[in-house]
Design a protein that fits this description.
This protein folds into two domains: about 70 residues, 3-Layer(aba) Sandwich (Glutaredoxin), CATH 3.40.30; about 110 residues, Glutathione S-transferase Yfyf (Class Pi), Chain A, domain 2 (Up-down Bundle), CATH 1.20.1050.10. By secondary structure, it is α+β, with helices and mostly antiparallel strands. Strand 1, helix 1 and strand 2 form a beta-alpha-beta unit. The chain contains seven helices and four strands; from the N terminus they run βαβαββααααα. The protein has a four-stranded mixed sheet with strand order 2-1-3-4, covered by helices on one side. It is about 50% helix and about 10% strand. The longest helix is centred in the middle third of the chain and has 31 residues. The structure holds glutathione.
Amino acid sequence: MLKLYDNADSGNAYKVRLVLAHLGLPFERIQLDTDSGETRTPEYLATNPNGKVPAIVLANGDVLCESNAIIFYLAAGTALLPEDNLERAKVLQWMFFEQYSHEPNIAVARHVLKHLELTDERRALVESKREPGYRALGVMEGHLADRSFFVAEQFTIADIALYAYTHVAGEGDFDLADFPAIRGWLTRVSRQPGHISITQP
Ligand SMILES: N[C@@H](CCC(=O)N[C@@H](CS)C(=O)NCC(=O)O)C(=O)O
């Protein structure tokens, strides 16, 4: 059975749980406490030398790390990933956008505010994420203004990758009030059959 190295509050790990739920795939969940260094033990570094969750271990022992690579692998051959080459590339386009322009701003601000003691330095870090975080939300809002989903008018792993931290953006002090298209899309994603919440055990 597939093994998932996980953390209950991590949006990156939630992406994988969400795809597994949509596909109805059974898995063994191994929770690591990222706040207390459980991702940096020699045992875990032997699985993921980068010391981060999520990582999956396949039945044959192969390991795959990086949330978006994992969900791309799991979604192959399913309705969550289009067959058409250009549409697949557009899915990748949004997943790279998520990792470079969205997650480093919105997820980092959320992590600091939720998990760390707020020093002046950390407050400044959170503030430095404000403008690029809202810029990323602006790009999403513009794209979703006349679309239901990010790619090919169908629910794909591009939506799952971007949903993970957008739906909890408020925890990073990002206000979605001025982003009606994003709010509508969040509702559509949460109403997909098979959806689970980030807090579902
Ligand atoms: N690019 C990676 C980022 C993974 C990541 O940042 N994981 C965090 C939790 S969201 C983590 O494991 N942090 C613990 C640590 O760095 O020790 C991915 O998408 O999987």
